[in-house]
TrEMBL record:
SUPFAM superfamilies: WD40 repeat-like (SSF50978). PANTHER family: WD REPEAT CONTAINING PROTEIN. This is WD40 repeat protein. Coiled coil: none annotated. InterPro entries: DCAF7-like (IPR045159), WD40/YVTN_repeat-like_dom_sf (IPR015943), WD40_repeat_dom_sf (IPR036322), WD40_rpt (IPR001680). PROSITE patterns: WD_REPEATS_2. Keywords: Repeat, WD repeat. WD repeats lie at residues 173-213. It comes from Ipomoea nil.
């Protein structure tokens, strides 16, 4: 697959447009703290959506002088299958030296080290007990309070909490009756998830045997399963066709 050429040239007074050579599904914006600590200038990661094994992720650098998004051949890499989500480290510090971290989900959870002019794979996290099959990951969320934790959601009805510093699973929960579409942290040990079964559930890692259903339907929806959720302490948001809560 050919890399894009000049980045973004289309802009208006209040926006900058990047034209990609392929359909884009996933996107992430680097933390302001990364630029503050001198790790990298503000960046945008974009991931392709192609119905084939070989997909593409690019890191676009925001150029303040020219108000453009600039591509760099060294800051792009092939990705197995379309990435379902991308995230930069939510709270990078000066201790991370000259690199930022990017995480992608798809077949597995993958960590990448983003340097000034290159990207290197750090680790691939897979909790499958067999090498022949892995349940695709629909999404993940990075815990801002405890950045060593990342929670993933999967089509196999589970949510998995990873300790990415050790590269091990902290816990795995059967979270729903059907595919889990999204996961979001609320605080250090509390997260929410949404599913094709039509429910929003909150889990507290201090009590893994129970969950709180804060939204649900009597019968699983046939047309409009809930696809995305966000949890912020006492607030929650649910997004789907004709479904909203706050």
């Amino acid at each position: 697959m050919e890399n894009s050429t000049q980045g973004s040239n289309l802009r208006s007074e209040n926006s900058v447009t990047y034209e990609s050579p392929y359909p884009i599904f996933a996107m992430a914006v680097s933390s302001f703290a990364a630029a503050h600590h001198g790790l990298r200038r503000r960046s945008v990661a974009v991931g392709s959506f192609l119905e084939e094994y070989k997909n593409r992720v690019e890191i676009l650098s925001f150029e303040e002088d020219t108000v453009t998004l600039k591509t760099n051949p060294g800051l792009a890499f092939d990705h197995p299958y379309p990435p379902t989500k991308l995230m930069f480290h939510p709270n990078p510090t000066a201790s991370m030296k000259s690199a930022d971290l990017l995480v992608s989900s798809g077949d597995y959870l993958r960590l990448w080290e983003v340097r000034e002019a290159s990207i290197e794979p750090v680790s691939t996290l897979n909790n499958s007990k067999t090498s022949e099959y892995c349940a695709p990951l629909t999404s993940f969320d990075w815990n801002e309070v405890e950045p060593r934790r990342i929670g993933t959601s999967s089509i196999d009805t589970t949510c998995t909490i990873w300790d990415i510093e050790k590269g091990v699973v902290e816990t795995q929960l059967i979270a729903h009756d059907k595919e889990v579409y999204d996961i979001a942290w609320g605080e250090a040990g509390v997260f929410s998830s949404v599913s094709a079964d039509g429910s929003v559930r909150i889990f507290d890692l201090r009590d893994k045997e129970h969950s709180t259903i804060i939204y649900g339907v009597r019968e699983p929806p046939t047309r409009h399963p809930i696809a995305q959720a966000g949890l912020e302490q006492a607030r929650f948001k649910v997004h789907g066709d004709n479904i909203n809560g706050q």
